[in-house]
Every structure is written in C-alpha cells, then in structure tokens.
Amino acid sequence: MPQERNGIPDGETLITLKEATALFPRRIAVSSIRRWIKDGLRSKVIEGRVVVLEHKQVGGALWTSAESVRRFINRLNGLDVTDIREISKEGEDAAAS
Predict the structure, then answer these.
(1) What is the bridge-based pairing of β-strands 61-65 and 14-16?
(2) Most exposed of 22, 36, 37, 69 (fewest Cβ within 10 Å)?
(3) Averaged over 75-90, what is the pLDDT?
(4) How far is 83 from 69, CA to CA, in rounded Å?
C-alpha cells in the first residue's frame, strides 16, 4: 500500500502530540497519534491508501504541526492539499500564457 511521506516542511511550527490531540474533531488519545505516525491510517475514501501523519523526531520526542494534522485529515478524506496546490499553479501558469 502506498504511504505518504512523513517529514514536516520547513517553516511550520512544531507542536507536541498532546497539543495535536486538540486539533481533531473528536477526542483522540496521544497513543492514536503515535500509531498514525508509525503505521498510518487506512483511508476509507480512497481504497488501498494508507495515510501517515507527518512528524519530526527531535531527540527522543516526536513532534507534528497543525498544518500536518490538517493535511492528514484532508488526505484521509480524499482531499490531498498537495494536489490542490499543483492544480492551482497549473491554472495560474495557463492563465499567464
């Protein structure tokens, strides 16, 4: 099964996994976030796709970002933010020609 990359882009503010739990629409345990970082979560919308929560390891601690959580949720729901950005850039390029 294809998996997403797990690095956080430079410039995003790192947050603890405990802080990340507050960004989900329902109550989530820190252990769930660790599991999504390690093993990912199978998308129910896109068959056969496992989505991994982007993270960075600093020393012995795992960190993520609010933007990574938003991308994780979007990818699980079939809305890949990266794809949307690529489409809009193509549209701008086409309009500029």
Answers:
(1) antiparallel
(2) 22
(3) 55
(4) 17
